[in-house]
Amino acid sequence: MANSLHAAFHAIANVRNEQELKLALMDKIGAHFGVQHWGLYLIDDQSKTEIGVPAIPEVCLQGNPIGRYVVERHAPAHEQLILSPEDWKHICPRHDHEHVMTGPIVCDGRLVGTLNLARAKGHPAFDGNDLADLSALCIHLSAKLATLRAKPKTFQPAVTNPLTPRELQIAELVAQGLTNSEIASRLWISQNSVKQALKRMFRKLGVSARAEMVARLQDILVS
């Protein structure tokens, strides 16, 4: 079970856009949690309104105490954490939603989506281990979504800029958090070429670390 969760973490880390998130988890969610139904619902980043209960209609949050719990606390929950089995049956009579669990996707302190799981009648209820795994999964999803929605830094050549156009390309990719291997792949050059270029760039800018280089370039190019 732990291996399948790590596979999900790895898949999340390698997606390139929001559309790929659900595809990356397609086979892994069901295998790990033993669910018959699940959904990943993300709210459009263009929406500037506060997220409330009516803002996620797909998740059926309105009138659902589990959804409300997630919205209010930004914490995962399942029906037995909040209600008795008898009470849950009155709220969700669907036989394919005998047990439900929902986790929050949070970006910049805002709820921007949920990960929802359901087990059909005859399957065991979600427990504390399921809740802990969902919490870990939502943390990875939230972190990845924050990265995908972050505005990438771009550097433009300037008279005072000592770097070549190629070095500026490398600096932009460093600012986006790419590793030497990823930069090499993106620019079709060797990792050693990237390493040597960074050494030259550090020397030109009088810095000794990647973060320091990015900050120094911002000072040069913005001033």
Verbal overview:
- Helices cover 52% and strands 12% of the residues.
- The chain has 10 helices and 4 strands, in the order H-H-E-H-E-H-H-E-E-H-H-H-H-H.
- Helix 1 packs parallel to helix 6.
- By secondary structure, it is of the alpha+beta class.
- It folds into 2 domains: 2-149, GAF domain (Beta-Lactamase, 2-Layer Sandwich), CATH 3.30.450; 165-222, Orthogonal Bundle (Arc Repressor Mutant, subunit A).
- A hairpin with a 2-residue loop joins strand 3 (99-107) and strand 4.
Level-2 CATH architecture of the largest domain = 2-Layer Sandwich
**Strand order of the main beta sheet, please?**
1-4-3-2
Number of domains: 2
Helix-strand makeup class: alpha+beta
What form results from the Cα inertia axes?
elongated
Task: Tell me the β content.
Answer: 5-15%
* Record field, number of beta strands: 4
User: At the fourth CATH level, what is the homologous superfamily of the largest domain?
Assistant: GAF domain
